[in-house]
Amino acid sequence: MLTIKAEIQRDKLRQDGSYNVRIRFTKDRKVKRISTSLFAKKADLTDRFTIKEDSLIKQEADILILHYRKMFNEIHLEAETLDVNEIVARLNSRDKSDKPVDFIQFAKEWIANSTLKGAVNYTSALNSLIRFNKSEKLYTHQITSEFLQEFMAFLLNESKERAEQLKEKGKRVPSTRSTSLYLMSIRRLFKEAVKQYNKPDQGLIRIKNTPFAYFQIPKQESTRKRAITAELIRKIEQLPYQTVYKGIHHTNRFNLAKDCFILSFCMIGINSVDLFNATEYDGNTLTYYRTKTRDRRMDKAKMIVTVPKILHPLFEKYKDTTGKRIFNFYQSYVNEKAFNKAINKGLKEIGSILKIEDLEYYAARHSWATIALNKVGVSKYVVHEALNHIDESMRVTDIYIERDFSNENKANAKVVRYVFGR
Q1: Which of these, 358, 374, 258, 244, lies nearest to 317 by C-alpha position?
Q2: Cα 190 to the chain's mean position, in Å?
Q3: Could you give the C-alpha distances from 422 to 266, 310, 311, 378, in angstroms and in order?
């Protein structure tokens, strides 16, 4: 039989002259004590070191004892087979399960400790949630399917207002993909909270609701098609260089954009961040690990590209003579973001000349895929592999296949030949 009592231990006097009130659980002559937030002074105790019946501390201790007795009665049938340590562990789990989880606080800590490249997207999603909630205090039980519906409406309205502001300024209006992306980010954060706070094997379920089971996240709006024709790519390559250079590094964004666009297109749409940080080149092939998906793939998103001869002059032009990297872009731009920004500003100048609306660096990647599939006859699977995308359905198969990148580079040779004739 289990007995539950409040007790004071005579030898546990604190520096402030008080004693912590402990709850003592006894079963089969075995004892387990837990501390409480109650503290008794000498005036609250009898000579025998029991709590005086008429004291406030006694009333509060009795409430705690009643609380534990009630919880014990709820597990009474199985408690007969448990020892006192297991019983107290179960009671503590039940106790914790009643404590609400602050979702926003958890999310902030999770993002801060995350090594994901897309952590900034989670921060943006969380900031949107805080704006909608009008408070940085939000418990998981408050996140219901109805709450999510209202949050989605809020996101769509924000997107609409932003689009109207951009229209007034004559700028391009982005898609509403952020609504889906933000909702997916919040769903991921909610799942992570469930993983952290729910321990079913210990009988601890602090997050009991499943709001996303009854809420459908809208499908993402298709990304804007940014591919341009082979003729326009040739025109970019044939544009004369500008002769005016600026800054201490003697740079020209127009020239940089022209060259980097061709570098990207002829190397299967390599991203600017990977171009900026590339370090492995043997004179024939460039090896890199795609930054965007490196942390989500077992192969670290490895890519080996045979460098077409058409690019050899550009490799020589931008060669890093120190040997630290393949290209010397890092010597002129503080980081990959500044580098990408400079390229896109230069591409706006090029787009203006060639009448290409809102030309961006990523158009090289889109154009390579489009030409490979529609003009050269490369299979969609090879295009998928060449772009180094993640295919969940192939994860197991990929474990058994040693990839040599030959199909991707054969496809690239066909694309380069189709566009440039060499």
Answers
A1: 258
A2: 13
A3: 11, 7, 11, 18
Indicate the domain borders of the chain: 3-97, 103-214, 230-420
Burial class (CB in 10 A: 0-12, 13-18, 19+), 123: middle
**Predicted confidence (pLDDT) per residue in 64-84, tens digit:** 899 888 888 876 656 677 888
Which tokens in the block code for residue 5? 């009592």
Contact 276, 336 (CB under 8 A): yes
Quick one: pLDDT band at residue 171, thresholds 50, 70, 90?
Answer: low
3-state secondary structure of 142: helix
Q: Which CATH architecture has domain 230-420?
A: Orthogonal Bundle (1.10)
Give pLDDT tens digits for 281-298. Answer: 999 999 999 887 766 666
Q: How far apart are CA 59 and CA 24, in angstroms?
A: 16
pLDDT tier for residue 140 given thresholds of 50, 70 and 90: very high
**CA dist., res. 115 & res. 223, Å (int):** 26
The pTM assigned to this predicted structure is 0.59
**Crossing angle of the two packed helices 230-238 and 406-420, in degrees rounded to 10:** 70
What are the helix (H) ranges across 355-405?
Answer: 363-374, 380-386, 395-400
